[in-house]
Amino acid sequence: MVQARSHFIAICSDSIGETAEAVVQATMRQFELPDTEIKRFMNVRDEDELSRVMEEVAERKGFVAYTLVQPELREAMKEEAVRLNVRAVDIMGPMMQAFADTFHDDPKEKPGLLHRMDDNYFRRVEAMDFAVQYDDGKDVSAILKADIVLLGVSRISKTPLSMFLAHKGYKTVNIPIVPELTPPAQLQDVQHGRVFGLTIQPELLLKIRSERLKVMGLPNNVQYATSTRVEEEIAYAQSLFTKLGCPIIDVTDKAIEETAGLIIRML
Prior knowledge:
By secondary structure, this protein is an alpha/beta fold. The protein folds into 2 domains: about 5-115, Rossmann fold, CATH 3.40.50; about 120-265, Rossmann fold, CATH 3.40.50. The chain is about 45% helix and about 15% strand. A 4-stranded parallel beta sheet has the order 2-1-3-4, with helices on both faces. It has a 4-stranded parallel beta sheet with strand order 6-5-7-8, sandwiched between helices. α1 links the parallel β1 and β2 (about 35-40). α2 (about 45-60) runs parallel beside α3 (about 70-85) and α5 runs antiparallel to α6. It is elongated, with a radius of gyration of 24 Å. One of its GO terms (molecular function) is protein serine/threonine kinase activity. Keywords: Kinase, Nucleotide-binding, Serine/threonine-protein kinase, Transferase. Its EC number is 2.7.11.32, 2.7.4.27. It comes from Paenibacillus terrae. This is Putative pyruvate, phosphate dikinase regulatory protein.
């Protein structure tokens, strides 16, 4: 029996390599490559270190995706790629060239600017702390402190959406909507345009809840995961959103990033 060959992808960056890895991960979803290793080589700042990276990539018969802002390192990468017959994909270079050519400006060529500890960084950290502290309606007083208030029934992805928005710097609180519980009075006092109602197709929510019960080792015939209960909750939430006059977003078949983008644009 012939053993399937493993795949190796190197991420080479003069910073932490997050941008290049995000592009690689997004591309990988288009392929069936179960045995693939992605290895980051971070803070590569000189040609000797770069050569060692490329030697490993050549030895393992992989390719490299790189984000190097210094022209001399990008040139060295191209030379090493030719010398070792390794495919190298420049993630950032063409984009920087497009900026330079279109806007007639020169790049700063300083590694790590995306992750420098500026005001934006500290705002994101504060927003992440806020989202964790007030997750799932732990303290309804947070509603009046938040940039964004998310409303929705259980298992509609309120928490991951809150965390994603927090990573973008928005203090986000999410409130579960349950027919038996009175909605927080603070919702009436939130500035218009900051509250968003999340809805979903009942069949999908029923499937999500059933899978959740299965993971927890619970029977799938409890009221929480019945079509009657799911439809009742969604209808109740819909009536509440209408009463509040807030935008309603159907998250069915939407990625977290897509829903967050809609919310940010509406803000």
